[in-house]
Design goal:
Number of helices: 9
Number of strands: 14
Strand order of the largest sheet: 1-2-3-5-4
Largest sheet: 5 strands, antiparallel
Structural class: alpha+beta
Radius of gyration: 20 Å
Strand content: 15-25%
Order of helices and strands: HEEEHEEEHEEEEHHEEEEHHHH
Oligomer: single chain
Distance between the termini: 57 Å
Length: 296
């Protein structure tokens, strides 16, 4: 694998020697890199992660590890070459109990990432992966269309399992009734999201003390959707949410904020049902019942 990365490393540090101890590569000048190589079947995952990180770096430099080299979405050798990924290395610790870093993360999301707009529409230019689940993405002219397609993709995966019939039936009702009711009136622009912003994908860079995000599943959507999985699993200091909404207020109509949060959390409950089975199905069904009751 050394041969995959050496040409890229020599362009970055022409006069350095490199020690390979995968996934870490260390240069004789003291810099560290993170490197990995996947199987042919993992190409889309590698592309999705790299393109997400590159977009985040453009929107908020330093907030996510910088990608130096990776297999691209239009790589001519895509079908025969194993995917690779080379980024800067970050030594990361937990964000959970650090109020100051939580404030900084909330500020950077609200003032940089979540104001970085797409000129193409809602969605993303390549598939991305939320956990192991492929998000097809593509482009949509409205947030309603985009989010309905995202929910519909998860329902299709659940149907393919031959189970969860009630969940799928009510999920289609959410698509036909709740999503138009809650999302059609919104006056929003598509902004860049991390896409899988739970506490396990955030932390503090030990060397700088600054917050960092990683393992994204990015797309352009409604910024409130990026907070959903953070609400579900916790692990963020209260200062994160307070500072975030200080800079980026809740979208009008504000009185529907909690219902929109339920709708956005539903995506992650459905995805966890796809990934881990029926232990999350009850929570997904509860969200659906709440939404259908409120939006009927």
């Amino acid at each position: 694998m050394d041969g995959i990365f050496l040409p890229h490393l020599r362009r970055i540090e022409p006069h350095a020697q490199f020690t390979f101890s995968f996934p870490i590569i260390e240069s004789s000048l003291g810099r560290k890199y993170y490197a990995k190589v996947g199987s042919l079947s993992e190409r889309e995952q590698f592309v999705g992660e790299a393109e997400s990180l590159r977009a985040i770096h453009n929107a908020a430099p330093g907030l996510a590890p910088q990608v130096f080299a990776a297999v691209g979405p239009d790589h001519s050798a895509a079908t025969s070459e194993r995917p690779y990924f080379l980024s800067e290395y970050r030594n990361i610790t937990s964000l959970a109990s650090n109020s100051k870093a939580g404030e900084e993360l909330g500020t950077r999301l609200a003032t940089e990432l979540h104001v970085y707009k797409s000129t193409t529409g809602f969605g993303f230019h390549v598939p991305t992966f939320c956990g192991a689940t492929r998000q097809d993405n593509g482009w949509h002219q409205t947030w309603e269309q985009c989010y309905s397609a995202m929910i519909g993709s998860l329902l299709a995966k659940l149907r393919d399992k031959g189970r969860f019939s009630e969940l799928c039936t009510k999920g289609e009702q959410v698509r036909s009734k709740v999503i138009p009711f809650l999302l059609r009136p919104l006056e929003i622009e598509p902004v860049l999201l991390h896409g899988d912003l739970w506490s396990g994908n955030t932390g503090i860079d030990n060397s700088s003390g600054q917050p960092v995000v990683f393992d994204p599943s990015s797309y352009y959507g409604h910024y409130e959707a990026d907070l959903a999985i953070a609400h579900i699993f916790g692990g963020f200091p209260r200062s994160f949410f307070e500072k975030y909404h200080e800079h980026l207020p809740k979208t009008e109509p504000v009185d529907q904020y909690e219902l929109r949060a339920d709708l956005y959390e539903l995506y992650h409950y459905l995805n966890h049902t796809v990934l881990f089975g029926s232990s999350y199905a009850g929570s997904a069904l509860h969200k659906m019942n709440t939404l259908l009751g409120a939006c009927s």
